[in-house]
Amino acid sequence: MASIDYQDKYGFVIVESKILQHHTFFESKADNAEIQKLVVGTEMMPKEEWIRTKVFCWMTSLLYFDKLLQIPFIILNRVCGISYRELAEIFMNVAVKYKTINSILNLCTKKASDIQKGKPEHVGSKKWLNIWWPVDELLFIKLCSSGLIYKFYEEAEDIIANYMGEKFLNFSKKLLGDSILLNSKMIKLPFIDTDINITLNYNIPEIVNGILSGITIPLQEGYFCYRIDRTTNKWTTLESWLKEVVWYGTKKGLYLYDYNRIEK
User: Fold this and answer.
1) What is the spatial distance between Cα 238 and Cα 200, in angstroms, rounded to a whole number?
2) What b-and-e string marks burial along 32-42, b requiring 16 or more CB atoms within 10 Å of the CB?
3) What pTM, to 2 d.p., does this model score?
């Protein structure tokens, strides 16, 4: 790939940018950073498609691996057989009225376009710990620290419900609502210091844990009550939450609170 002839043959579009690793301090090495060459397009993947691919990657990380919608995604895949790729693509082109999710897409698109111009791959933030953040983590921080997270879940439920209707998929609205509710209550947020009990119409936590453990557990409808443990781990400052949840916890995906089943 370093050969000029090879690059010409496949129509590589190459830019140079500084190597600024994520979770390193914003101003520590920016002036003396090494330079890397990035392929930001090819003959078979025009620059516009490269941008869309980059946005898809960030959205997949945000929605599934950062756990914002991991629970409903698992349930939709398990019950309806919808692929995780298709689930992520639902959020790649949404109506203008969904302002919160559209703002996420716009930020991702602009960042991908900036990378094509040679700007850094990550986002430096003096406001949040003065370090370089991966794009999906920065979006996670913005949603959770601003209160927009609640609007995000409202929009996400409506987007998925509309998609299910358009595809004529037989899927209970109660099951979708419960999945969104559970996920929204389990996301670790700063300044939360009380446990919460929620009642679901389905045994969703057991199904999700089963899927992640390679065990198939049947979907059951009934009365299921759970206590979300939001006091064993709590963060009274934004800085402690940024460090322990988003920075230190990202490799293990520790974005969700623990829970306990409560008998009726």
Assistant:
1) 31
2) eeeeeeeebbb
3) 0.93
